[in-house]
Amino acid sequence: TDQLNYSELYKVLEISSTSTSYIKTLLAHECISYYNPTIKHSGTGPFLVLLVLCNCNRCFVCFSLAEFMPQVKVEQVDTVEGCSHEVALPDSDDYKPLKPRVGKAAKEYPFVLDPFQREAILCIDNNESVLVSAHTSAGKTVCAEYAIALALREKQRVIFTSPIKALSNQKYREMYEEFQDVGLMTGDVTINPTASCLVMTTEILRSMLYRGSEIMREVAWVVFDEIHYMRDAERGVVWEETIILLPDNVHYVFLSATIPNAKQFAEWICHLHKQVGCCTEHFFGDFREDNFNTAMQVLRDAGDSGSSSGGKWDPRGRKGGTKGPSSVFKIVKMIMERNFQPVIIFSFSKKECEAYALQVSKLDFNRDDEKRLVEEVFNNAVDCLSDEDKKLPQVEHVLPLLKRGIGIHHGGLLPILKETIEILFSEGLLKALFATETFAMGINMPARTVLFTSARKFDGKNHRFITSGEYIQMSGRAGRRGMDDRGIVIFMVDEKMSPAVGKQLLKGSADPLNSAFHLTYNMVLNLLRVEEINPEYMLEKSFYQFQHYRALPGVVEKIKKYEEQYHSIEIPNEEGVVTYFKIRQQLAKLGKEIQEFIHKPKYCLPFLQPGRLVKVKNEDADFGWGVVVNFCKKTNVKVNSEPLYVVEVLVHCSKDSVKDAATEAAKPAAPGETGEMQVVPVMLHLLTSISSVRLYIPKDLRPFDNRQLLLKSIQEVQKRFPDGVPLLDPVDDMGIKDPALKKVIQKVEAFEHRMYSHPLHSDPNLESVYSLCEKKALIAADVRTAKRELKKARTVLQMDKLKCRKRVLRRLGFASPSDVIEVKGRVACEISSGDELLLTEMIFNGLFNDLTVEQATALLSCFVFQENASEMPKLTEQLAAPLRQMQECAKRIAKVSADAKLEVDEETYLNQFKPHLMDVVYAWANGATFAQICKMTDVFEGSIIRCMRRLEEVLRQMCSAAKAIGNTELENKFAEGITKIKRDIVFAASLYL
């Protein structure tokens, strides 16, 4: 055939529209001709066989990406200082400047707007979607309020989404006080769902889109608050799904903390919904390195004096004496004396938060009238609690602190106390608030001063300096609009910090908004259920895919550059030189194989006696010849099941790398440099040569002169052997009898014979032509790498994972072989707050049928508890038995997933279902008081409540799942579970509602 029928091709192959576009573009190119397109079938499905003829040798360079690339351009708009304004629009459109507002503004403000706010509001007046990227407390909410006011004025509906329920409650209160016609939808709470402005979590909006809610037909604007949450590894995908599913006629306001790639996000929105997208950014600040170094010098002097007076180094490299337990007390006291309050003190653990608050509990920051107000607000807040709940230790202990103007805010607090503290702080009744970094997110609650108790945090894996993004988010709380001319940020630094680290922390770019898109079974099943869209479309349109597409032009340019470099190198008699080059390369490869034999401990250790000369080289540092001092075996450390040995070698190091005890790694002395001989630990594989020469070494190597004497001895040996220091022969000297080594040595001898007999070997220009050939070979390797990069960037990512997930769904009976959703699949679509596959399997296996309401509720707690508890509870048999059944079910899913080529580790998969609160939930469902269940575990009270509230959400979804298959008995069981847990302080109504 002369023409390919692309629609048929799409239908038969079930390939993506992007792939079809790629084939079209490729075959339409002037240097390409093709013939005999045929469809063939294999075990993995149908595929296209196409014979392609190319008339040029550089197709990957001249290949036009026009149809394949997102067609978006960006225009820079002139703005005032402190604000950047860029516009992303389709390539085919011409940029049109924003029209000035005609008539009255939708909303007036009692203060002068900042430049970025004025620009964003003008975009909204022009019906253009806008991304507002600014630091915390900069006033981004002004832009959202204006969009809501505009929609209400035009009799349109608007949706405001936020990342979490608590924040949705706060925003609902804020919006209700401003507009009145406001509703709330968070799953567990629904208020005025027919309102023109609806505040909801992003998950609720996603659910509405999948179910084709009628509300969406009337929506003109959607506001996404805290859009930088899209990079969250677990929940970020919900934002991407929602944005992709929203119709093109809806306009958007995205509010984000500072992100360096805001322009890229705006381009994606433009590409996705064919809209003009504006991006306004707010920025400021300079870094004074001279002042920073002065501050660090003070710290060093204090550390040194602390050290000289008996201070000790702790294992993490900190010097004692620089930060005592009363440091926070002193700084907070100084803040109050200088009238810098209110202050937020950020710590990176709940226990630290409470400990620091207790340190300052003797101070009193409130007047008597303020104390009376605090007590009145507190009593009104806890009035809804039972008498027993009012006697909870957390409730009783917090009031004395609050009356003194001291607050605590972290995830382990009771939600009602957290909200009370937020209200008291916003009213100016708390002067010092000790908080974890979660307080930096959400409702606008600025202070005059922000104090960091440490510049480092534990992120679950390592202790590290906080990132510039984390710093920006928290420090943004410093400075109250209209009240302070500046905000104050104080860092407690208890260890040396280089200017580079300090500059990166304070002035580095914020964390980029990188997609965390990943496939979930709930997403795949919902997309299989909906007719207009499929999972492949979701992958193609994701921000994850878009970010890879944007790399294409850069990769093509890179290939062009490498190609030009490659063709610019001309080598005389190139064919002969390449042959010689390949022989040398093969010899080098065989040399490495011999090294692998020599490095085996059983062969080399007998020869690593003190005084033995060895050559040391790692990837980026060549130390040359050194002297073995000793070797040791590392206990409890193995590499590829072999014990690990470390050799202590005396080598010539640069003075800079040995003078500072804090230096992480020694560096070799440069040629001609007067360095210093230093003993460094070396792994066996870094010994590139073992000499047959041994030197006498002094007993004591601590004196400088003794070590330098050995340097002179090494230099003498090198003079005695100008053709190279003699090496141990692996067969004759080391006695290695391995037949495999003999084969390698025979190959070496054969290649050496070819090398010596090659005419180029005796050529006087050998080194110059060889180095040219080596350079050309490296460029050729770069071209190959870049081509692979181009191929990877052109493919739709995660497509293999999608195929694997579909395979799992088919094998477990959730979908048919033709990807039609089955009954099991429809049930799983109802579950999004727990593992949908496992919960559905448990329903269909009848696991819940014989359990009591209390047992079933306790078992479901495993799906929602996510914190690390110190120890496993001893479960009774009535709880342990259903847990074992659930784990057996999970093992089956893990096995099916592994068989379907998904990377699933059975143990890791099972460990995500944590039974640590099963006995607590069981007791609560049986009517125990909150005080009683708190004594059963060391988990914070706030964490218990968070688990219970998530559990109620899972129970609601399980009711819907049971209803989907008409199992009324099971539906009633889960509904009764909700009734049993939904009581008292655990489900006390939010103070914002």
TrEMBL record:
Task: Please give the chief subcellular localization of this protein.
Answer: nucleus
Name all Helicase ATP-binding domain ranges.
121-277
Claim: Nucleotide-binding is one of the keywords in the record: yes
Region Disordered, as annotated, extends over 301-325
Extract the InterPro entries matched here.
Answer: Beta-barrel_MTR4 (IPR025696), DEAD/DEAH_box_helicase_dom (IPR011545), Helicase_ATP-bd (IPR014001), Helicase_C-like (IPR001650), MTR4-like_stalk (IPR048392), P-loop_NTPase (IPR027417), RNA-DNA_Helicase (IPR050699), SKI2-like (IPR016438)
This chain belongs to the protein called: Exosome RNA helicase MTR4
Pfam annotation, one family: Helicase_C
EC number from the UniProt entry: 3.6.4.13
Tree of life domain: Eukaryota
